[in-house]
Amino acid sequence: MRRRTFIVAAGAAAAVPGIAPSRIAPARAQAPARTVRLVVPFAPGGSVDLAARLLAEPLGARLGQNVIVDNRAGAGGAIGADLVAKAPGDGATLLWGSSAVVSIAAALRRNLAYNPTTDLAPVSLVVRTWHGLLASPKLEAADARAAIALARARPGALNAGSGGTGSATHLLIERLKAAADIDLVHVPYRGSGAVYPDLANGLVHLMFESLPVALAQTRAGGARLLAVTAPERSRLSPDTPTLLESGVPGFVTSAWFGVLAPAAMPEARRAELAAAIRAVTEEPTFRRRAGDAGLDVVGSDPAAFARMLAEETEAWRDVQRRTGLMLD
Prior knowledge:
This protein is an alpha/beta fold. It folds into 2 domains: about 35-130 and about 255-325, 3-Layer(aba) Sandwich (D-Maltodextrin-Binding Protein, domain 2); about 130-230, Periplasmic binding protein-like II (D-Maltodextrin-Binding Protein, domain 2), CATH 3.40.190. It contains 10 helices and 10 strands. Helix 5 links the parallel strand 5 and strand 6 (about 185-190). Helix 1 crosses helix 8.
């Protein structure tokens, strides 16, 4: 069976625009808006919101405009994403996007008010963080390879907890089941935090978590970190093997955050925004703050971001075809 490498989320945890949607108007001179709204489609206080605020102030300084974070939570991020998708392409309204409202939405969600593949256009992939596969300290498996072997030998005997049905942590479980050809019993909780006590005492055997949180759980003694979802070992835990090393081909996922624009924005304006964002990502202060938050800095151009989104969306569509999973 052919495996695909992809990047996830977050946000747990989003569209895969083509690089140049057919309805994008040709570039023309436009007066820049005095204030730019960076729409975060989730509530304030979470990791998505934190990452957006790291970017907003230095980006405003680069643009010579006031960039404000505008939280528009609801419907799994669809309300905020739809607001941006229907906004004018003058640069006044941008989306702080993630897999939840782009690639996952395109592959696994029905009846959206916006089309993730045609109504949003990529500007720049800004930062990302990897995921960790955690195991209960009581699970008799020394590493991810052994845990997968145990799951194959005892189909349906291992439980995998998540922060809720449809959450990023749930979707990663489904991806692992398909990629490793194993049968895990999904146990949804009301938020990832509720899983930890049962993981510690062995009622839950496995779960995914963002790597910074996974490391905190490991240090507290309530879990063991078996593997990371990065393409190579993470600087945050260099002794932990990747899932690729553990025998799961193509399993590379991250919780990413990036800037997308309404598809009506001219391509030249997107290129200007991307250049300003890349300049921010090269600033030492930004890189230090992002690193302190456990984020890897990227800073891509629109074309590279579009390629990543296309690959990720197809990977989630592959998961949908193989599992029948849909998010309503």
